[in-house]
Queue: 2 jobs
Job 1
Amino acid sequence: MDTILLKGKPVRDAVFAELKVKVAQAPRKPGLAVVLVGDDPASAVYVSHKEKGCEEVGFHHVTHRLPADTPEGNVLDLVGQLNADPAIDGILVQLPMPRKINQEKVLGAVDPAKDVDGFHPVNLGLLVAGNPRFVPCTPKGILRLLSYYDISMAGKNVAVVGRSVIVGRPLSLLLSLKREDANATVTMCHSGTRDLAAITSAADVVIAAIGVPRALGTNEIGKGAVVVDVGINRIDAPERPKGTRLVGDVDADALKGHVAALTPVPGGVGPMTIAMLLENTWEAMAGKEGLDENG
Ligand code: GUN
């Protein structure tokens, strides 16, 4: 079986092109503020990609880099200032935060109207209610990617593996909504799931978001399935000049020829997350300025 690679780049490029046109016609630039606490190397890479994305589409952006030992109160003060700043439409608090900081408290302090990550309880609640405002970027990006490649979720059995607040849980909710790009039958699997392989191997679509390198292979995924790999794991690769390489949560080499479609790592879901962050920031500004959705 030929396996179609669901590349994110063309979809991301289309979203960026649309945003550039809208920004050129807008009364002002949308503004995104990123709060990065600590020195997690993966977070530093993600944040630099977000900054580059803002540059490319012409958004105003600021990144606040704070040391790992910053007191929680200072982070909350900064969020308060950003909430009050009229040039800032979207606020992203990069996760994970250092352990000493209460992540829920910080996410809950973001003005829900600027919560472009969709992690505030109000926005998560609206998603549960079936009336989402800001949808978390990776779940939104996965739906957009599947739509672009004309892969319908309607009526499909989808196994979502992983229940994180960033991906698995909001994605499960989103996929179950009664709307054109979703309407799936969703099974949420996690570390407490008994006989994971029995569920995933029977699914039409498997979405892997567990952060374990190459955990799912041909025993866990059925022939002809559609596979979305959300994992970005760095593993040792002595044969590479850098000594490491990125792999996903599925064994892509084993699945090529076995499944109908697969998102590559890197270059699959990753570019979509950034595109959706910028789109959400645009929507935050458009909402504030009373623009219609096309600007
Ligand atoms: N860390 C990993 N992915 C994400 C994301 O989408 N948003 C935030 N804020 N932090 C992350």
Note: The chain has a mean pLDDT of 97.
Job 2
Amino acid sequence: MSGTYLRLEGLTKQFPGRRAVDGLSLDVARGEILALLGPSGCGKTTTLRLLAGFETPDAGRVIVDAEDVTRLPPAQRRFGMVFQNYALFPHLDVGANVGFGLRGRAGGPARVTEVLAMVDLAGYERRPVTALSGGQQQRVALARSLAPEPRVLLLDEPLSNLDPSLRERTRRELREAIQRVGITTVFVTHEQEEAFDLGDRVAVMNEGRLEQVGTADELYDQPASPFVATFVGRSNVLPGEVAGGAAGTLAYVRPEALRFTNDGPLQGKVTARRFAGGFAFFSVALTAGLTIEVHAPHGAVRVGDPVRVAIDRVLLKASGARA
Ligand code: ATP
């Protein structure tokens, strides 16, 4: 991966009564897989549609390989798009689906064979698409979008159509296929696990704006805002004075950065335990009138126990206004 290949510059899209995307700027490196992650309505899909050319921005630009494509219609951008429902033609076989955008082009059948191999479906040309599993259909959709050699690949919630039990494997296969092609990719998801597993970096959006872009480790360990600290992973939000800070501030603390110990400064009582493998999340009602969540070995304490808790690390300090 090297250099910026795709640049979103101050993208803004106003719908009646709603600014769906608000001054969004992002650089995507050549060959990078970038996830757009955020809660429902944060503007992820609109951003993808602005990239694809299905929407025109009110302000800002989309630049690909130093070319401003902001005003180009979708077909002239040379972007590939995989839709959430794959949008395959059920009456056509795999080969005809994949070759759809290549009709009349010399070397079409050879290209179909080539892209089917890229997505690990070599020899599937004559299969009806209706006879394929969900994961295979997704790879046919991917092959179809890759066939005309797009400059950028866009995917809308690529795994949401699949049975949860299939998602992990399909995610890995999808990532491998994209990496094999080496294409610059932007995908939309509202699932953190998917964003972190499939993306090289993740752009966290909230209310049309970019909150932070970074690797999973960066977002988890160094959140830039209260929104990211609570949206990516779990955080306790403690009043500054409870966490040894200034009054009027807030301290964000991960459940695993809290520890049961006899001399901890926080005092309370365990009110609940939620099992999570060998560990558990314990709810602790503090005498200060606040409930916190502590991640500890599942047998560390019992419900009803009076406990003391120490804070090992404050993730983020912020002024009093909550995200
Ligand atoms: P989800 O995960 O629920 O799909 P999202 O993050 O993709 O959400 P968008 O679909 O981009 O969010 O929508 C952002 C905001 O813009 C929402 O409030 C939505 O209702 C609004 N919006 C989207 N498209 C239009 C439109 N064509 N006309 C009016 N408002 C729209």
Note: The chain has a mean pLDDT of 92.
